[in-house]
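note to self: dont lose this again. the chain is below, predicted strucutre after it. 334 aa total, dont forget to put it in the shared folder this time
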Amino acid sequence: MRRVLLVAGLLAALSPAASADLPQQPGWRGWLRQCATCDADHQRYCMKLDDAWAEAPTEVPVVVQVHGFNSNPAHTRALVKLVRGQGLPCGEFAYPNDQPLRASAELLSAQLRLFAEQHPERRVALVTHSMGGLVARECLEDDGLWPGNVDRLIMVAPPTHGSTLARYAVGLDLWEHWIVRNDGADPWRRVRESIADGLSEAPADLRPGSKFLRRLNARDRREEVRYTVLLGSAAQVSEEHRYLVRQTLLKTAELTPGWETDAAAVDRALACMDEVTDGKGDGAVAISRGRLPGVADTVVLPFSHLGVVHGDQEPGGLEARQVILDRLLQAAPR
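---
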């Protein structure tokens, strides 16, 4: 009986009609996600601007923040805290953070094009965190998605060439929709929203050498857009500690018959995991894998991947926010 109720509840949770404004996605995952999507998701996954944004001079760019993986606009608002304090018009773009990055880019493109139709005199600047930078680049650098109204892209900690940690992104939906969520939503709503948020396609796109990244990085930079890349170097593991872990692992394998192959595989993974090594990464993105060819304005600062968007504890994070403001003011009238 419990199993019957479980299936019935899941079918009921998936019953709302899919929003026509969200990109259609192939495959069974896309079909399931479309079935689970309802009007509430359409209202949540879109671009929203601050109430008084239209009062700013038309010459001033509208600054739109784009969050990253397993995140939402509220988590990354600190990136534009100084920008809002200077009175620049701001907004946020929210998208299903676990769906294919191409689908997220299509949604961003549709929102920017709609904004361009309604406000053709306005220019847009995108400020992104982590995976949001890849979503933005897919939107701006693909001729079929180019909205035509963006002239600056500032990316904080973009995994340009992927992150080795994406291979281990298991169970994060459980964390996002069940463990840290405290809004009192009933279980079936959480199930439905977890499906609408994506079915682990994003981590596949984030893996080094993925089809998505190969296609994205084969394109040229958009000439109409000025790029800035900010990369962090404040990971928590020293090079010495990483070396000691590798040596301990291999020595243990020598004393454990049958474990040599597995230990060697783990050692190879640790050998290239610059993401978590202090001075080489921010805890999630390696500096070497974050650099974007053709972008001279690349700044490396001592911030961690989450520290740069959470609170004011990291001097490097505060410096990153100042750099963001400085670059945006370069585009605004004095």
